[in-house]
Specification:
The chain has 244 residues and is of the alpha/beta class. It has 9 helices and 8 strands. The longest helix is centred in the first third of the chain and has 14 residues.
Length: 244
């Protein structure tokens, strides 16, 4: 089990500049400009709209993207965000406290008929920020009654099949009975791996099926989507599970 910490205040004087730059650049590259079709994102959004539970929501590996995924959710009354590093939560917090609406948000809101008040409501939700490693056993101090847990990308940082499957075990105890878990894992391209990034091409739908069977989830959705015109990623696994 790794260190668990709730972030009450941000001491920017202790930040790692390279991490802060990474999260900022990631936000600007993937979640600021016009919506990019044929990336699998449409499937993720559709599944969030269909399977996203109301109530208390935990977003794993939140980084700067939580507000984007929140566009598809309804009747969330409390938001908890997790990251491994505080810098990612600070980028998110600054964005939540602001009023800017990136083009990709506008595009999705137009696609799905979402009014601007929804974004305002999500920005003003009661929220908490937590630092812990979601790829290892989760801290017992964390709430055990989430209606919805999302994980976009984070489980894809594992380095072997068994560690990937175990992530679904760690998550299960923190969902309410009949709670939903929705996530996506982007599979890296050879060129991105050649730049020194971990090879996560071992991930596939069979591993998620094994995890669901082993840890007693019902599969609500499971698919593999091709990604076009992205030099870093070839495909994405999209999954939605219900705790039995």
């Amino acid at each position: 089990m790794t260190e668990f910490k709730e972030i009450i205040e941000f001491d920017v004087g202790t930040f790692d500049d390279s991490r802060n730059l990474y999260y900022t650049q990631y936000f600007n590259e993937y979640y600021y400009d016009a919506f990019r079709p044929n990336q699998g994102t449409e499937v993720v959004l559709d599944i969030l709209k269909r399977d996203g539970k109301s109530g208390k929501w935990l977003d794993l590996g939140a980084g700067p993207a939580t507000l984007f995924w929140s566009l598809m959710l309804r009747d969330i009354n409390e938001l908890h965000c997790n990251e491994l590093y505080i810098e990612g939560l600070k980028v998110l917090d600054d964005f939540l406290k602001g009023d800017s609406v990136p083009q990709c948000y506008k595009d999705v809101m137009n696609m799905y008929g979402i009014d601007s008040q929804h974004l305002v409501n999500m920005r003003t939700l009661p929220r908490k920020y937590y630092i812990f490693d979601a790829l290892t056993e989760w801290p017992s101090d964390l709430s055990h009654n989430y209606d919805l847990i999302t994980g976009f990308g984070v489980f894809g940082l594992t380095t072997n099949p068994e560690d990937y499957i175990r992530c679904f075990e760690y998550m299960r105890d923190f969902l309410k009975d009949d709670g939903h878990a929705i996530g996506a894992n982007w599979i890296r391209s050879q060129s991105f791996i050649d730049k020194g990034n971990t090879d996560n091409r071992f991930m596939n739908m069979d591993l998620i099926k094994r995890a669901a069977e082993r840890y007693d989830y019902q599969i609500l959705h499971l698919s593999e989507e091709r990604i076009e015109n992205d030099e870093n990623y070839d495909k994405v696994l999209v999954w939605s599970l219900c705790k039995l």
